[in-house]
Design a protein that fits this description.
Blueprint: E1 9-14, H1 18-29, E2 35-40, H2 43-51, E3 64-67, H3 76-85, E4 94-98, H4 103-111, E5 116-119, H5 124-141
Parallel strand pairs: 1-2, 1-3, 3-4, 4-5
Helix pairs in contact: 1-5, 2-3
């Protein structure tokens, strides 16, 4: 817990499939890192949450975003593009977690500066392994910026 100064890791899951939301929540509930998962059911809600607009004024800035590509209203590609263009959001790691295995989707999301691309496994056991690897890498190995340092900094 030292990484987060005693607080839980904040994760924004952008996913419209209720079954995948439950799978992700169950897998993260078994995780070793204390975490809070905030769910956005479409791209429009995700952007409002990240920008702290309307009813999301008190939303915490996530440490990690798990983003599906095929979303209603605003698709995941557009959400990723907007996140990576906004100075206060662009440093938040975005992992695309999608059912698409299409090479064009992989290339497009990396062109839009995704930090990773993972194809969703079908079963709970496989899904749990993927979540454990996300947890291990992003919350144990990698150094993440804290919320204050996510604001634009001249380099």
């Amino acid at each position: 817990m030292k990484r987060f100064n005693g607080r839980a890791a904040e994760i924004l899951l952008v996913e419209d499939n209720p079954g995948d939301v439950i799978l992700t929540q169950e897998a993260f509930s078994d995780a070793k890192i204390n975490n809070h998962i905030h769910v956005a059911k479409d791209g429009e809600v995700a952007l409002k949450m990240l920008r702290k607009e309307d009813e999301y004024l008190e939303m915490v800035t996530p440490d990690l975003i798990l983003l599906d590509l095929n979303l209603p209203r605003i698709d995941g590609r557009q959400v990723l593009k907007e996140i990576k263009q906004e100075p206060n959001l662009k440093r938040i790691p975005v992992i695309v977690l999608t059912s698409s295995q299409a090479e064009r989707d992989v290339i497009k999301t990396y062109d839009l500066h995704a930090n990773g691309y993972i194809t969703k496994p079908v079963g709970l056991t496989e899904f749990s392994r993927v979540v454990q690897s996300i947890e291990s890498f992003w919350f144990t190995v990698v150094v993440l910026p804290n919320e204050d340092s996510l604001k634009s900094v001249d380099v």
